[in-house]
Amino acid sequence: MTSTTSTLIQQLQQGDKKALARCITIVENELEGYHEILTSLKFKKNVPVIGITGPPGAGKSTLINAVIKKITQQGKSVGIIAIDPTSPFNYGSLLGDRLRMAEHFNNENVFIRSIATRGSLGGLSAAIIEIVDVMRASTFDYIIVETVGVGQSEVEIVGLADTTILVLVPEAGDDVQSIKSGVMEIADVYVVNKSDRDGANTFMKNIVQLVHSKPLSNWNIPVIKAVATKGVGVDELLDAINKHQEVGMNTKRPYLLTEKAYRIIQNFKMKSVSKQDLKLQIEKEYVKADFNLYRFVEEKFIRK
Predict the structure, then answer these.
(1) How far apart are CA 137 and CA 20, in angstroms?
(2) Cα distance between residue 292 and residue 145, in whole Å
(3) How far apart are CA 281 and CA 301, in angstroms?
(4) CB neighbour class for 243 (10 Å; exposed up to 12, middle 13-18, buried from 19)
(5) Which residues of 13-50 are buried (b: 16+ CB within 10 A; e: fewer)?
(6) pLDDT per residue over 251-282, tens digit each?
(7) What is the pLDDT of residues 212-244, one digit of tens each?
(8) Which residue has the higher pLDDT, 189 or 87?
(9) Are 188 and 244 in contact (CB under 8 A)?
């Protein structure tokens, strides 16, 4: 390990935000020293990783904004990772830093980083596990991950977060079936945001019935009524998160670590496959009359 990398890791663990930003950049882009950073990480405590997911327009960023405000008022620190869609032109984050969280940018207890999905099929970035662990090695009290909001593929957040929060809105009226079943299965906490709108009470009742129909466990899934723009429901949400850390964190830990290990191995195995090179090869081959995608994959990658 170089002295520069060693110094960077030491600064990261002391809570230096510039060192944290640099470590994330190195790890996300697999620059020189990224392996040394990852294998040297030391976690001082069980920092809760909170995944916040839900359909577009549910008000996830607004809710996070309110949660950040409440956390920092308590004198605690929070790191936020906002997973954004990838720009098709430069593979960077399409939305960039979240303007709705702009009031927190100069708060020393808040760190916000936007990460691009870069072609990942789900709502998460391919390097998200490593980035979250880099943040866990710093000095935060909470880490929040906001996903893109792409639907059922967001179930992969459950393999990352200690507590998964599903944010919904009453626009669907009483039709809970309109929400993807895979997404509905992942929540540790439900939040019905914009609950001052018409149909909110009926929607809440149906969500509560759905939750009660699930198999019993050591955690009773709460359904929280919120209006994020007014700060309504934020105290209840933070209370639910803290309670879930006490009850649900230990029971989920082996599953979470298994999912993380599986994805790390999967990403490592795929390192030799360039999507751009793959596209060029397919462009060359698919014009042939006898082109078969399965035979192409087998000949180029499996038998290789």
Answers:
(1) 9
(2) 40
(3) 12
(4) middle
(5) beebeebbebbbebbbeeeebbeebbebbeeeeebbbb
(6) 666 776 787 788 788 877 887 888 889 999 99
(7) 766 656 788 899 999 999 999 999 999 999 999
(8) 189
(9) yes
Q: Which among 56, 73, 84 has a CA at the least distance from the CA of 110? A: 73
HEC per residue, the chain: CCHHHHHHHHHHHCCCHHHHHHHHHHHHCCCCCHHHHHHCCCCCCCCCEEEEECCCCCCHHHHHHHHHHHHHHCCCCEEEEEEECECCCCCCECCCCCHHHHHHCCCCCEEEEEEECCCCCCCCCCCHHHHHHHHHCCCCCEEEEECCCCCHHHHHHHHCCCEEEEEECHHHCCCHHHCCHHHHCCCCEEEECCCCCCCHHHHHHHHHHHHHCCCCCCCCCCEEECEHHHCECHHHHHHHHHHHHHHCHHHHHHHHHHHHHHHHHHHHHCCCCCHHHHHHHHHHHCCCCCCCHHHHHHHHHHCC
Tell me if 154 sits within 8 A of 130, measured CB to CB: no
β-bridge pairing 189-192 and 163-168: parallel
Query: Would you state the structure tokens that stand for residue 98, as one six-digit string?
Result: 């979240």
Q: Is the pLDDT of residue 9 over 80?
A: yes
- For residue 200, pLDDT beyond 70: yes
Question: Band of the pLDDT at 61, cuts 50, 70, 90?
Answer: confident
Distance CA 127, CA 30 (A): 9
Nearest to 146 by CA among 246, 228, 43: 228
> What token pair was written down for 144?
């929040």
User: Which residue do the tokens 């990480």 mark?
Assistant: 41
